[in-house]
User: What shape does this take?
Amino acid sequence: MLYIRPEPAPARACTRNPAVLKCLSAVVRYTLEGNDLKRVLVTGGSGFIGCNFLRLVVPEHPGTEWVNLDALTYAGRPENTEDFAGARNYRFVHGRIEDGMLVEALFSEAGGFDAVVNFAAESHVDRSIAGPRVFTEANVLGTQTLLEAARRHGVERFVQVSTDEVYGSLEPDDPPFTEKSPLEPNSPYSASKASADLLCRAYHETYGMPVTVTRCSNNYGPYQYPEKLIPFFIRHALDDEPVPLYGDGMNVRDWLHVEDHCRAVARVLEKGEPGGVYNVGGSNEHTNLEITKIILDHLGKPKDLISFVPDRLGHDRRYAIDSTRIQTSLGWTPQHEFEPGIRETIDWYTRNPGWVQRVTAV
Ligand SMILES: NC(=O)c1ccc[n+]([C@@H]2O[C@H](COP(=O)([O-])OP(=O)(O)OC[C@H]3O[C@@H](n4cnc5c(N)ncnc54)[C@H](O)[C@@H]3O)[C@@H](O)[C@H]2O)c1
Assistant: This one.
């Protein structure tokens, strides 16, 4: 099989030239269609979505070495990767993506990397409101550090895992966000993710780097750190404690099973258009109040556990995602239906109190 590793792009080369960009894109698409990825750097692989991604791809692609670079923050846990940590094609590296020396050393190892999938991020909006700085360091500087190393080493594919929150908030009757919606982030978290998206765009436009961005809606599923709404409320309900619902509970989110998100990222890694953006969503809009009631119903807990608390600062009212592009051009469709998916998720947290206890113990 023909396998071409492009030369590293020269600094500020003539790659603003559309003809050159098109040619570079074609080369990259050609080499990856055979899925000949020998080594892939996955960052943030010990967190919620990253570990679910690795859980899929490590056994499905035994010919690829998957290297997980993770800082093991409070949200990134060794417990999340225990079941595949011993796989021959998996390796863990402890460190931060904004640590330029570490990142450079990793990219300089024999074999280098054919692709990067960047999940690593500070991800909790409430924490970004309380302390934004680490969000800028991890999400903006970290992404730029990875982009720069990938550029210098001629990496053939870079997937930036972003979020629908970069688009800001919708009114109740607005159409869902498309990839052409303006970036109007409202929280320090979403602003840091939008900044990273813009850096990705700039590295593509300036250097012709094959960067692709995914923007997904809210995920649910196993291994989510129990500070996020669904596992947090399940934990409180199981303990018969009040579930603190922001504002009037009518904020709307578009929910997608984490495995469907991971399949979308894998599809973009394989076939995404360099320089392209792909929205990923489940078209499952629910208010936070509806989600809370589903959790309480499923656990047989009374509704009076719901405790309305003062709203989050700058709380986005509604997110909804139009994922037509990834569905029509890459053939991705969500496989999990919402009702059974959310019930299985509640059951997973109910069956795994030991995991909840261990990850929240520090
Ligand atoms: N959770 C969602 O619903 C959702 C939806 C759309 C997009 N996303 C995006 O998906 C990605 C993963 O989200 P998640 O929910 O799994 O988050 P998470 O907080 O569960 O996991 C983040 C992981 O990144 C690691 N990390 C944090 N800072 C790091 C750094 N500086 N260097 C290396 N590792 C670092 C953490 O240790 C953790 O393992 C994020 O980029 C997030 O913006 C999340």
